[in-house]
Amino acid sequence: MTPTAPGHPTVRPARRGPLLAVLAATALVITLAAPAPPAHADSGPGAPADTTPPLKIDTEDADLRMPGSAELAPGRVLDIKSVVETDDGDERREDTNAKVKFALQAEVLFGKDSSKLGGEARARIKEIAAEAEQQNARKVRVFGFTDNLGSASHGIVLSKERANAVQQALAEDLDPSVQYEIRGYGEQYPIADNTSEEGRKRNRRVEVSFPRTG
Predict the structure, then answer these.
(1) Sign of CA dihedral 94, 134, 122, 162
(2) From CA 177, how far away is CA 138, in angstroms rounded?
(3) Which residues, at least 6 apart from 156, have a Cβ–Cβ distance to it below 8 Å?
(4) CB–CB of 93/84 below 8 Å?
(5) Which residues have CB under 8 Å from 165's CB, separation 6+?
(6) Is 150 left (phi over 0), alpha (psi -120 to 50) or beta?
(7) What is the per-residue pLDDT for 78?
(8) Residue 100 CA to chain centroid, in angstroms?
């Protein structure tokens, strides 16, 4: 022990070893005393039904009343989309409350790097025209798209030429008063990954859409 000056308390060196051991043991006991909560899986298909009765709501509760002369907004129907696609993915139809949209792959309509309609293409387009007529469509959109191979400028030109060809075929079966919006977007707005041929095939398409009336 090191002597200290008179009038000063004796300073003893700290005993760290036993104290740290006690703290560590205490922490271990606390950890072991608090087991992790059991795993819980979200309910899914086949899970037992929840039979808990719904909570009762007091309609006279002041906290549920709207302030002043406020009123609830009018109810509205959510826009629900229905999608139907052929097994080979050549044709896709989307129905919502507001519109109908068809997407035809370019291989169904045209030859490679061509905007000339093939024989099978006209039969498909006639079916789309019949649906547009049934919906009494007064305005039809025809948009062309390509993959990202080749130059972007070539894709814009080719997609517009293909959209024009489809529009001209539609016009043969629809009323002359129908208005058309025709655009060629080239490689813009892909719906699949352009890094694979399968994805590029889906991106090479012509979309025809019109408002739903029924």
Answers:
(1) negative
(2) 7
(3) 184, 185, 186
(4) yes
(5) 109, 110, 115, 116, 117
(6) left
(7) 61
(8) 18
Tokens of 100: 């109908």
Residues 111, 162: contact at Cβ < 8 Å?
no
Residue entry with tokens 């977007």: 185
Spatial distance between the Cα atoms of 11 and 187, rounded to a whole number of angstroms: 82
C-alpha count within 13 angstroms, C-beta hemisphere, residue 35:
3
Q: At what angle do helices 152-171 and 119-134 cross, to 10 degrees?
A: 60
Residue type, 107: E
Phi first, then psi, for residue 7 (nearest 5°) are 85, -5
Cα–Cα dist 139/167, whole Å: 12
The token duo for 99 is 């519109």
C-alpha–C-alpha distance, residues 89 and 104, integer Å: 9
DSSP E strands, 108-167? 139-145
Query: Whole-angstrom Cα distance, residue 132 to residue 167?
Result: 12
Pure H helices in the chain: 16-33, 106-109, 119-134, 152-171, 197-203
The tokens of 72 are what?
Answer: 């609830």
Which residues, 6+ apart, have CB-to-CB distance to 96 below 8 Å? 79, 80, 81, 82, 212
Two tokens, residue 162: 């293909």
Give every CB contact of residue 126 below 8 A, 6+ residues apart in sequence: 169, 173
Q: Chunked in runs of 10, what are the mean pLDDT values of the chain (214 residues)? A: 48 48 44 47 48 74 72 68 78 90 92 90 94 95 95 96 97 96 96 92 95 82
